[in-house]
Queue: 3 jobs
Job 1
Amino acid sequence: MTIWMIGHSTVLIEAGGKRLLTDPYFGLHGNPAYARLAPPARRREDLEDVDAVLVSHNHFDHVDRAFLRSLPETTPVFAPTASVFMTRLKGGRNVVGMTVWEKQILGGIAITAVPARHVTFTVGYVVEAEGKCIYFSGDTYFGAFMEKIGREFKPDVALIPVTTYRIPMTMNEQSALCAVRALAPKTVIPIHLGIRPRLPLLRTRQTPESFRARVRQAGLASEVVILPEGQYYKP
């Protein structure tokens, strides 16, 4: 099993002979409110042969219309049931809606949709393969549901957002620390680090490194791995 950081919340998971891509976003410039900090490690055309796409929600930095349109019609795009129509509008063709706690089997991989809390319809995903478990939260606030995810799945790796700006669209350092306590994963990989507000007043001094220091100071056993674009991690 290998986890590749493509950029922001776009992660390539290679496991069980399959390749799964989370929340595809290949835009280079962001939008009027947010700037992209670094280009993705791979181009759209480099990943058109993935076996499935996991979409947590439909915000601009999590769904890439051009990429979804380029996929073969046979490639499943998993998305929250409530946002299937919107995912199709954004380019998805073979969109498979998932409700919370629903499981889909793709070859030797089990994919389970799990709860998430955001300002739109959203889910997270648990991927089980090769005797390992990866939790991809998408964009979410901290919630008690994370205790159930930790208890039932015992994730080896948790991919969770650790935002470094003031607008509370996902978890900040403190909330992410609560998530680590609840999930108790062996490894935490911060995501959602590829954009920042264009307005300096909305930025904070929080960094992935300061989050890692807080996890250590709290005495938690989870290792925080900071994964730059183009780098990989093997659980």
Job 2
Amino acid sequence: MDQTQLAAEADAFTSAHGITDTADAQIVIATQSGTCPQGFYASICGGTGNYCAWHSSSNEPYTNLPYILDSGTGCGEDFINANGTYDGVTMVGGHEYAETITDPFPVSGWYDGSDSVSGGEIADKCAWAGENWGDSDPAGNVTLSTGSFAMQSLWSNAKSGCVMSTPQSTGDTVTVTSPGNRKNVAGGKYSLAIKGTSSGGHPLTWSATGLPAGMTISASTGVISGKFSTAAAYTTKVTAKDTTGGSGSATFTWTVSAAVGTPIKGFNSRCLDDAGLWETLGNPVDLYTCNGTAAQKWSYSSSELHVFGLCLSDTGGSGSKVSITNCKGAATETWTHRSNGEYVLKSNGLCLTDPGSSKTAGTVQQLAACKDTANQKWSGT
């Protein structure tokens, strides 16, 4: 495909799409892999070409943009980034776009006629990060609302040199609400929803640094979840960005302690267990096959039964299921461990009871009238 054919293609596109303001048009003729527009610098095209792309004009300005990846490093692959497969695509495409804007009909727009080295156009003078004007010419990644892209610098008459800048954000105000400092225990599962708002009501994209080991954040919802794997102190920063470039963040400490305690065994030698390992208020407590997990590490102190730093608590009287909650010293979480093995709740005098007599692992434990029966006998703490 030569220049005459490319010009005809641009004219045909302009006509087919009814473009009337041809002086301000921006037609890009992008060819597929394996196609070799005349002079393209790619080994599969014979290896004799000397350009990556160029712009010209017919009835309208147009850019001839070959399949840049066919040229590999010859047209910018990995030029900015170590894994920058598409570096050349955005650098070359941006180069030609800038020149089509400032010199839409070549030699009738801006160019430096005295520059015989690079060709004198706004991007040519700064091509390939100082190829013609010294290695100080900038090139790098530019972050826009749609992602990060490798770009080259452009000539500035005001500076008499090549410049490169990232547009200043004029985006919405994004507010992220801190969840406050957190305390959890290693070995447990947890889910924490971070709240944030965009002043323009735009969707948010979430990220985080310093999360406890084993935890991740959902980029679309801002929910942090996972299973704590390592006891340590963390400084966590959660950031939300919206589609206008607005950004906000919140920082808090997250202390993960080691699990402490020993198993409490009930009927049929099964263990009292925080169901599913969840460190969640209101999570049920069952009787399960003893497995040594943190969900079965209980401690009995100050007349409270602790697991994951939370307390075993009543949810509503006789026949009600027990669950874990914040420790507040309330009668509904105060237990007496009798010498016969019963755990008796202070608030109502009922006993911690296995209603299924351990016929089914995973049965949630309940409160019932104390009868000194085998399904109310507990040992281990």
Job 3
Amino acid sequence: MTLGPLMIDLKGTSLDADERRWLESPLICGVILFTRNFESRAQLAELVADIHAVRQPPLLVAVDHEGGRVQRFRDGFSPLPPLRMLGHLYDEDSGAALRAATHFGWLMAAELRSVGIDVSFTPVVERDLGLSAVIGDRALHPDAHVVARLALRFASGARRAGMAVTAKHFPTHAGARSDSHTEFAVDRRGLAELEDDLYPYRRLVDAGLQAVMMAHVSFPAVDPAPASLSRWWITEQLRGALGFSGAVISDDLSMVGAAVAGPVPERVRRALDAGCDMVLLCNAPGEVPAVLEALTGYLNPSGQLRLARLHGRGGDSWQGLHESAEWAGASATLAALSARPELTLRG
């Protein structure tokens, strides 16, 4: 059985009968986990193993584990600072920041791989323009070249731990004040004005980036549709102009920013028709049956191959990881970064 295009979430800390039945559908590619799905490291490892055991090849298990306010698992996991702290350090000592970014990516990925999680949807590569509150300290730096340098090091650390990274949110959420979770988000800049925002993606794509998450942001000077539903952004720009060959992932299609496309099943079809390989549907379990019905017969062999490449590779046991000198060094680096005071980045 191959991987389908739909990734869903779960209500609790174990699979219920409906969820298990949905996961058996060839239209599902995996599960995204949230804090509500976590009680302990042992419970999490058991849940991930249970999800993987539903089908062959195994379903993907994903999480948003960026650091700072977006870290889904905390008790027993290393606390990760906001990505912005890497930017603060870069302004003082670029070499130390680049080393810390590598440690950050490795530690995040290594701990998740030790409990079987395949992929974390990170890093955020928006520039910190001071406009988008929902991005805020999730952004690395205002300077696109600094963002790219830090993100490349973060990605290299994660890959060494056996995890692909997902750069988000393409082309950017940095210029939209509205939060696309709860409002329709608009950025009125033209394509030429977005060149700096696209620069980190160019660098990451050239380095072999394996996944990109699309933004529910509309750029009416370019295309009135949200980027996540826009064939122009996905096919012409991301795949064509930037040469991206990895997996394209929508942000959560239950968000208000995607509601312009109508009911959820229509949003899903719009995103897939625009070129997404995977669509996320979170916090809307009642919509899953209708979406599966709407996707009956859907097939995208190229997308299936791109998604299969997101499966995690290797990974130490939790005990082995925490006994390693590399974990001790990375943990100490991140602890020191977390202890630094918040500053305002130089634009």
